[in-house]
Specification:
The complex is a heterodimer of chains A (143) and B (89).
Chain A: H1 3-29, H2 33-36, H3 38-63, H4 69-96, H5 112-115
Helix pairs in contact in A: 1-3, 3-4
Chain B: H1 2-26, H2 30-55, H3 60-84
The chains are: A mainly alpha (143), B mainly alpha (89).
Chain lengths: 143, 89
């Protein structure tokens, strides 16, 4: 294996290990659930991306072919990590928070997670949220 | 040099796996446990890729792809079960 490949693979591996450790440490260190959501979904995904880059460089240097499996795995992980973060945040919102405890959005239309189809079925029963949408005037939009 | 870096990375991800296990056991809410399980799946993918580098074979990529798929589907289905009381409506 050439020397530049060893340097590159080692640097990628060490960066990836540090990022993975920071992500998992943040999962046990941060104080409440919504802040805890940040550490694994960002840092650990980046750590896995680092190992995949190291693997690409390693197999290119040792076997002389560019493998695309890593790109597939990285693409899949980077696509699915925000989706699972969104679902976990929705579970937290529906199980631990009430609509009154949340900050009011800027437009005054309420949170879409609570007003779209009502609260989660079979988990907790929230009182129905009144429709507070102000009537849109035509003058607010420039002609 | 790669051996040292590989050992360091494997140690980091294994320690992270133990931290996630602590959060799964001690987590106060259900959302924390789901998040910790999702992170465990991601750390397991990283360990599989590192094992592939260690042994110099490419047969672990299919395993990690399956781990990524099953981890994502299990996370989403668990969340959906908690949100709607049903998975496929």
């Amino acid at each position: 294996m050439p020397f530049w490949a060893e340097i590159t693979v080692s640097v990628f591996l060490i960066i990836a290990g540090l990022f993975g450790l920071v992500g998992s440490f943040g999962l046990i260190k941060l104080p409440d659930a919504m802040t805890r959501l940040h550490a694994p979904t960002k840092a650990t995904t980046l750590g896995v991306g680092g190992t995949l880059l190291a693997s690409m460089v390693f197999f290119y240097a040792t076997q002389g072919r560019i493998s695309t499996h890593e790109l597939l795995i990285a693409l899949f992980l980077f696509l699915t990590s925000p989706i699972s973060a969104l679902f976990i945040a929705k579970v937290h919102l529906h199980q631990r928070e009430t609509p009154d405890a949340l900050p009011t959005p800027h437009e005054g239309t309420g949170w879409a997670s609570f007003t779209a189809e009502g609260p989660a079925r079979g988990v907790r029963d929230f009182p129905p949220v009144e429709d507070e949408t102000p009537a849109k005037t035509e003058t607010s939009r420039p002609a | 040099m790669i051996t040292f870096a590989l050992t360091f990375a494997i140690a980091c991800f294994s320690l992270g796996l133990l931290m996630n296990l602590w959060r799964v056991v001690m987590g106060p809410n259900k959302s924390d446990r789901i998040l910790a399980l999702d992170t465990m799946a991601i750390n397991a993918i990283a360990l599989l890729v590192l094992l592939g580098i260690w042994q110099g074979t490419a047969i672990y990529f299919e395993v990690s792809m399956l781990f990524a798929l099953v981890g994502f589907v299990s996370t989403v289905s668990y969340c959906r079960f908690l949100l709607r009381g049903d998975i496929i409506e």
